[in-house]
Amino acid sequence: MRTEACNEWRRSGKKSREMYVTLQDVHNIRKEFLPEYQFGSLSDMESLRAEFVCQQTLPERERTLLFVKTETEAIEGYPELTDTHFVAVIQNDHQRQALQRHGSSGICIDATHCVTRYKKIYLVTLMVLDDSERGVPVAHCLVNHEDTPSMELFFITLLPQLRSLTVLWFLSDDAPAFYNAWLKVVRGETKKLLCIWHVLKNVNAGIQIRTMPNAAVAQNLKFLFRAVMYSHTEEACADAVRDLRQALMSAGECSGIFGKYLFESCWAVGFSGPPRMSHVY
User: Fold this and answer.
1) What sign has the CA pseudo-torsion 213, 215, 216, 222?
2) Is-contact 221 244, C-beta < 8 A?
3) Which of 126, 161, 165, 250 has the most neighbouring CB atoms within 10 Å?
4) Diameter of the chain measured on Cα atoms
């Protein structure tokens, strides 16, 4: 409506102040004089809540908003969710079918940050792999807190669909919120895998930080870690893990946070067995 009004003023040919009004002007006025209408505000969330209520009258396959919790409401039985939590679960019928068709192999999940005008709201995407091993988004969740209680609500909303699946692995970054919420809601034995992109990011950061004064040691550890990551057979992986473990023991304190990260995150228990990385799996 604002765009149409601005265009109409320009087409009128009148040399008045309204002719020069832009959407940025409208935004600045709203931000200064109507602070309750800022991005991510209560009005936006209440509009989403109203849309959710309206969709309850539609057939199930036509609904896209499965759940909405605004910042002003509390949910009985979930004391961890305060009045500062916002959660909205989004899924269409095509995504529901894709989850049922491909979800038993494994689940991938990650969140994006600062990709929309709502800077304090994160978009969490649940994905599966199709027959060609390409990622297919099967559900989305908008949250303002990327924590375990918010993710629990996400999975609880999808639980009627997840009950019929036997998910073999769960892939995410090494933050505990996603996997902890999954185990609490689904209650199944699902293998935890780490996203290799996040692992490499953390590994590179750990090696570059000035806790490893010996550059040669850092490069050697990085080389051995990549040998583990790109192993094609179980035997090659076991040999690479043995070499990496010996190098870390030789480096001692020089391995710094890199060795601690490998020990605590990339392996389930110490260095026994293959690491929990998607490439190795």
Assistant:
1) positive
2) yes
3) 126
4) 80
